Amino acid sequence: MDPDCYRLAAGVYRTSICTTTKLPSLRQGLTYLSLLVPVHAKAQSFVGGDLSRQAPYGLPAQDFAAAFSSPISDATFPIRGYNTSLLASADHTKTDGTCSAVLPDDCIRQLQVNSVASKVGRAGGCQNLALPDSCAGHLNGNTGTAFEITPIGSSAVADRRSMFFAAGFEPVRKGNKSSLAAAQRHVWPVLLAWTHFDEAGEAQDSAGWLSCAKTTESKEVTGGGRRLGAENVLSIAGWLFLIWVITISLGKYGSFPSNLIIGRPYHLTFEVLDKASDENFSRLRVVPTSELYAEVFAEESAPECATPAAGANDTVISATDGEEFRLVDDDGNVVARSNHEVIDENARQTLTQEEIEELKREGANAGKDVIAKLLLSHTAIDQKTSFSLAKYKLLKTKKHIRRFQVLPIDVATFAQWQLEERDASKIMDLRAEMIGLVGCWGNVHFGGEDVMLPDPKAATDAGDEARVAVDENLLRGRWLVVDDTCGLLVAAMAERMGVLYESEETSTEKAENEAMTEKPPATITGRSQETQPSPAIPETRQEDADTEMMDASTVPAKKQSDGIRKQQKPRPSDFAIPYSQTNTITVIHSTSQPNLSLLNYWGFDITSPNHPPHPLLNHLLNLTWLQLLKPELDTSYSTPPLTATPETLASWKPSRRGNFHRKRRRYARIRHIVDSTRAGNFSGLVCASSMDPVSILRHTLPLLAGGAPVAIYSPSVEPLAALADCFSVPRRTAWVSGSVPEIEGLSNEELEHWQGNDRFPLNPTLLQGVSIQTSRARRWQVLPGRTHPLMTERGGAEGYVFTAWRAKPAEGKVAAKGKFKRRKVDSETATPAPA
Amino acid sequence: MTLPATTISPFLDPGPRTKANSLAILQLSRDNLLPVYLQPPTGEHDGYAEGAVVNTRYGSFPHSTMLNVPWGSQIRASKVDTGSRGRKRKRDGADDACREATGTGDKENEESPAAANEDSTAAVKTAVADTSGFIHILPPTPELWTTSLPHRTQVVYTPDYSYILHRIRARPGSVLIEAGAGSGSFTHASVRAVYNGYPAEGQRKGKVFSFEFHEQRYHMMKKELSDHGMDRLVHLTHRDVYNGGFLVDGKSPEADAVFLDLPAPWEALPHLSRRKPQTAPNSDGAVAEDNQTEWVSPLNPKKSVHICTFSPCIEQVTRTVSAMRRLGWVDIDMVEIANRKLHTSRERVGLNLNFDRGVNNSARDVEEALARLEEIESRSREHAAKPRDDDEDMESADEAAKLDTDANGNQAVAPGENGAPTTPPWMEGRLITRGEPEIKTHTSYLVFAVLPMEWTDEDEAAAAAKYPLGKEQKVIGAVDKLARKQERREQLQKVQGAGGRKARRKERDEKLGEAAA
């Protein structure tokens, strides 16, 4: 036993066995495959196809097919040629794809026996694989958990009769190079098992084979997620990140220069064309919708094909089945039959994997040739039903067609991408339904034209007294947010309030400028150095970097003296408030800096001191809980501003001067944010937080204006239920009955700031109309004769929304009418009404 | 307060306090909402001395008590003489607890808000606070309006419209076409979504172009919109859009998004094309269009247009989707929304709880059941041990049983709940959530689609000239290993050749690019 190889084998942790469902009407043929896979691995790719023509994972098709077409219980097939050459360099006799280099013979044999012994039941259920004792020490654990392989896009049992399905397991995270490398180092045992059923559905023969394989190529797609919709369109979100003049590679789908998609409309479907002989790049073609939907149109025009499932008579796919996939052979014969005939046992894909790879490399006709050839070279294609043929084509199309779409990054698209392709937990599983509900119940909308406070024109030797005080009458249309979704919630609100995107005129104008100067436009995440402040957007934190700019001598004239007065545009004084008084979002965060990293996708970086113009700059205010609740303890709030006479200032070094201004500006900003937030009268509260909502409401309810809505999202219902219970009818009745000793003698003002106890965590009269709801969108496939809900969708957190309105309870005891008459009488006799 | 603030719809900016002649939503109980246009107390109204009065089962509420109070206020019921209307009995005697607002008080109060609410006196009519009964007064929002509006047709409820508006990208500044205004719930929600200020003359601002076929509904809707201060934000047209299309005064609204709540969306879809559709929806339409010299698209030519259709039946969906495919819409997606409201309550189970409503007086757990059974068993054994006269026996046994359970009950509860006597009833039992008794299992199917901008060969040529090819610096995305190695090698060579700084910078840029990807 080679010690090195031993280490490799030990890298496979736990094992599992999986089966597909048993097929009652199949006379003979393979019905299930088993894979030994690490349990923690998340399936990244599924392949499928006709087993009789193409064996899974590069196994030699003909040997494989031969082995299972004449079933005997101890069938083996040679597996030479499968790439395991790096497996045991010390011993070349064992690089044959068997696991003899890494596992003891006993273990291999017994694994194969066990795979047969753990028979699939009549119902086709998955059974766990018992690991033999002889494998102990090589494979961890003693059983594997069952794992059902479900091919993407097809789950009807009938489709499995002639296809194999296998799951490929790639490194846990896309783009994770270290785990990719680890996967390439490791050896992955694959246990193949198959069973033959007789017509009664009883298992007759079974056989199993263990082989060892290594990951040899990576299929990672770092360009963004891909989504295969019902229309077979490959969408690539995330493309706006990369607007450098570059070549974009879609891996096996080909690559093309980015200038071919810049300046083009969104939502068009492009196809990567073959390279012209005199060019070294691929061009793109816009696919017209008539071509996208050619298949559907063909089906619709052939009425008898509308319901292939009911095809008792010969259902035939017409020869005019779209020009992209000609499903006729060279003589123009029609190639599909009904399911009366059974797939011939010799039926198989005559193209070998090598030939397919060769075809792909040639890159002919955007993958359509590959698909067509695959279909044509399938010798039993004419015996497939149109239904299974459609599925087969779908599988092949997904795998080989080279089409994509460019989508704008808006909140809806981005959230879906983050949820489905990236890390859903980062955004607390916030689904589109929930974003909509929270936004509507929070009544988040455009809160009025911008109102800026006048610049106090404070001299540099003026202290705190020169600041502009917060004018509560100007504060309107402001929303309070607690966001633990890395900024997605803030983005969704900003979108609803019209402060997420630059106005269209500005952005197109900017793009044109940049195109003229031939400079690369700003990436979404990076800062562009040359962006000019646009006059449409009030200048904000731009001035923060004046020192740096001076030092970098971008404005040489400024360098001589105090730059403030020499500028053409008068620079606002340190105490000028850059924030609008209306239409703002106030984020309260629990760490010293808010985590709003996802706003980077919309060109806003809260941590950047020298930010190019962005609408959020004037409309996004943030403060910590400390600044809100105990501002006197916050250094930046409570330290009085520095002062210096202009003469002293002029004698300083530029960097010291810059610091001086920066600190004064920060002071004025924080003072303004804290004071205006503590002034209250917010138009609404929106939350998606992992903190206890009761504690959030305890401190934010007093800040809300009367009638202001509260909308709180939570991935699970329990925190919201506990919150709703604080406002339950019995609790409120008890509170207003006047029989609660702890609140006796408190004024309404004091009751609004009620700090809570065990019996009354919150003042139960401060919210009205408390309600919890959940929503779920169910997606459907709409195709002629085949309309039904999708078979699988994302699970995980359901998502709930708590809604209510802030109430202003009347002074004194208030008794209800009607329903609680008996109690009312009781309480009245107990404590006489004060009012 | 700035001038335009007074004209802004209460849906969009209700202001801090209630105003006369403006809509307010009265929340009578949890789900019982009543929209009311508050009237200034200009004298006797409908026989009420207090002016206009809202009568509910929770008491009577003169409008005067609800004017110029902060939104969200709890309003006490007033003692209103509902019995002697028409007899015009003069009321007298102001109560010190009464609250009212004077008829001309609005302006005064705005000038001196501190004196606004309470303890002002009135000459004629005075509302006297009742001893019991209250409601809350809430500012109107599309959500509240949707649950309280007068039904004319089936209503598009919040779970649906919130999702739709999110998906069709209705944002401040968007122009929306809505066909089938119906009861107006979607109209109100979409106005809020697209609102970015009232348009000045000739200015393009967010707007809703609404179409209603039914004449009566059209007139009701028209009045409602002007009552709500939305008539400048919604352009309501009375028209059959199947034949009439979506142009307003022959001009294109240049819509960014479309919502169709029509029985046959496929008949309206051809009007929503970029160019004159090849096949007219029907013969009438064909004739009508032939007459027109120039066909104008109602869609925004500079943007992808999102659409949503709202149909209850699957057959409608099939036809709609089929029509969409033929008209060039992409990303067709059909969903239905299932929304559930949850109620929270305290589930109280136990043998020893009092017989309140909602209490399940069965054993809380096995231990409690066991204790009870043991108790009964031991007592019957005791009883069997002492033979007595039948009648006496029964009575005393019953009494004993009663006493014992009580005693036992207290014993069993006390240690289990840590001083149970002090646990208030609203904290007893387990907190549970359950669905509302009746749920809407199906509202309608929502079909979403996108129509990309028109893109001609000339456009493509212009774009190609603007963004020339051949200057690609690097490859991003899924690059294969060989290419990456090659790139790295070139980089290293450059580092050696050109010296550190430039190459390092380039490398950093590339890393940034990768991180972004």
Q: Can you lay out the helices and strands and say which pair or pack?
A:
The complex is a heterodimer of chains A (835) and B (517).
Chain A: H1 3-10, E1 43-50, H2 61-69, H3 105-117, E2 163-169, H4 177-185, E3 187-197, E4 203-214, E5 226-228, E6 234-236, E7 247-250, E8 255-257, E9 269-272, E10 284-286, H5 289-292, H6 294-301, H7 353-362, H8 368-376, H9 386-400, E11 403-406, H10 411-420, H11 432-441, E12 476-483, H12 488-497, H13 504-517, H14 546-551, H15 563-566, E13 582-589, H16 615-619, E14 620-624, H17 625-629, H18 635-638, H19 646-651, H20 654-678, E15 684-688, H21 693-700, E16 709-714, H22 718-725, H23 729-736, H24 748-752, E17 767-781, E18 788-789, E19 800-806, H25 821-830
Parallel strand pairs in A: 6-11, 12-13, 12-15, 13-14, 15-16
Antiparallel strand pairs in A: 1-2, 3-4, 5-6, 7-8, 9-10, 9-11, 16-19, 17-18, 17-19
Helix pairs in contact in A: 8-9
Chain B: E1 23-29, E2 32-37, E3 53-56, E4 59-62, E5 74-79, H1 105-111, E6 128-138, H2 142-148, H3 158-167, E7 175-179, H4 185-194, E8 207-212, H5 215-227, E9 234-238, H6 241-244, E10 257-260, H7 265-268, H8 283-291, E11 305-311, H9 314-326, E12 330-349, E13 359-360, H10 366-385, H11 390-416, E14 430-435, E15 445-451, H12 457-466, E16 475-478, H13 481-498, H14 500-516
Parallel strand pairs in B: 7-8, 7-10, 8-9, 10-11, 12-13
Antiparallel strand pairs in B: 1-2, 1-6, 3-4, 5-6, 11-15, 12-14, 12-15
